[in-house]
Amino acid sequence: MIRRILPPYLTYAESFDDATDEPLFPEEAAVVEHAVEKRRREFTTGRICARRALRRLGRPAAPLLPGAHGEPQWPAGIVGSITHCAGYRGVVVGEAPQAASIGIDAEPNEPLPGTLLESISQLDERSDVDMLRRAYPGVRWDRLLFSVKEAVYKTWFTLTGAWLGFDATLVRLHPREWTGTFAANLLVPGPEVAGEKIDTFSGRWVLSRGVLLTAIVVPGPLRADHRHAAALDR
Where is the 4'-phosphopantetheinyl transferase domain (predicted)? Predict the structure, then answer.
């Protein structure tokens, strides 16, 4: 499913239920030793998907442990992202010369609870959501906006190692039939990649099997000529 919104030079693995065919490494199992069952299952399947994706790049299986902020610590020379929600687990990885950063997020196609939309969005974004709800009622646009901002944060953190609040971006959603693109304009100074300052993260989204998926890819040095279009040229 996620391959529909990725450039062809990346590798992925995904699952629509929890995998039980491979055990965790002892170091990984220790991370979720005291977690609730739901967390253990999603963590385990995410790590199994990561191994599968890395094997497709010719990388051996090894423990994939979280860093100080919970981020996956990928093997040297690898960039990647993990996501999970009810009914979906996915991983995307690439070689560092090809990709500088990857951010993916999965969310159920359901409304955001309570007043969460107000706390994660700008006024212009909420106006767009209202308009899109009327035009395309099958997509939960508030949830999609949230998913985009989650993907933005993952992409940003890989490049900077710093926090980024929901109010630090202005997202524009561009719909098609059950899929589309988006642009997240940074309202704070952006990072520099291969000598170029980034002020916008562009990506793609898709709705399938009741799951909203978003993906952002910042091309690495080998793809620098396609930096602005890499997420869209499919």
Answer: 101-175
